[in-house]
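#lab-general

N.A. 3:47 PM
ok so I finally got the sequence cleaned up, no stray characters, all 453 residues accounted for. can someone with queue access submit it? mine expired

B.Y. 3:52 PM
send it over

N.A. 3:53 PM
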Amino acid sequence: MAIKAIILIGGPNKGQRFRPLSFDAPKYTFPVGGQAIIGHLIESCIALEDLSEILLLGFYQQDGMLQIENLQKLVQKFVEKRNHNGDNRRAPAIRYLQEFTRMGTAGGMYHFRDQIRHGNPEAFLVINGDVCGDFDFESMLSQHRATVAGSEKMGLPAPYITVMTTEAGRQESMNYGCIVENCHSHVIEHYVEKPSTFVSTLISCGAYLCSPELLTLLEETMHKKRREIGAGDSHIQQDVDHFDYLSLEYDILQQCCTQPRCFSYRTQGSWWCQIKTAASAIYANRKYLEQFQRNDGNCQYATERSEVSSITCEIIGNVYIHPTARVDPTSVIGPNVSIMENCIVGPGVRVRESILLQNSFIDSHTLVLCSIVGWNCRIGTWVRLEGTPNEPDPNQKFSKLQNQPLFNKEGKLNPSISVLGSNVKISGGTVILNTIVLPHKELSRSYKNEIVL
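B.Y. 4:20 PM
back already:
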């Protein structure tokens, strides 16, 4: 039977911690590992053999930013690659369903429930659009199907949802949705979203396999919530002042774990992270490049992941260089660098642990380290652009990347990667350290630990 995938892409009033990069493009279109975040999610979904359709849910205006036609071409490319390996499957359709307002992580599914039910799918996969990782949705689907079959055999109601989970550090876990499960049956017995005290080291990955019965539960929950809002019930969240908002985490998972119809699937993937800050994009860029190297055996690759024969500079480790980019032979690139379309890297430039976005220009003898260079930026000669990497604790098992706040308790800027918004110009001979620069700025002097407004 058919499977559908739903990717929750949110809307333009979210992604504040990703600024200034989210000023110019939705976060889900930001490139890591040489490809948009949503492209990686689509590629993971394509691994499901019975996938019939991919639905994007969000409240961005349906304009050029969404580029549905380009995404359909991307889907076709992934499928053709699998067909080349003997897997003869048709490309699933991809559609955008635009919410008329902010509806939360479950409100859009309730609003478009008839679209999701169309074709009578066996199950539907729901993924938050800001998660990255080494996902194995086929294995997750196998466990979900086994759970459904076991419930039918015992005469029990079908499971509502299977949640992909992973381990995190004790302190880190409180930044995510925490799950308490039965280790034998994998039934979720308790779920708390971002608890104030320690609950469990098992956290949600933001990926869910749902049975069609979940849509009925959404209807019941929405009707109940509307009655409570209409009655002026004081426990309803104050910031939710309309009848169309529904949270999968708060309204569904936290409420329905009292009955054994929610299950946990522990991912076997090698890594996972949420893209909340620019620093997390640098981390995801590195992990995707490592993943492609493992899967394809090719560190230096272009758009089609073929060897970059036209690049003659010194390359260290895993690097993505777009075919339209021009890199001087005397420069040194890598490890863990992505250079996007139409970038120009001049003589003697050193780039490491960084992302250069479209049409950026790096003049001669400049160092770019742990930084993101925005669209159409111009960096002069002998510039040092450097940031402080944000890494998981290597001494702690299951440690996850911490998306630390912009400012510490003393009100000072936390050291992090340097980020240039679009159309920034930096004069030669300057040092830019741990600095965030908003778009359309010209820097003629050095900056350290500042936000350039």
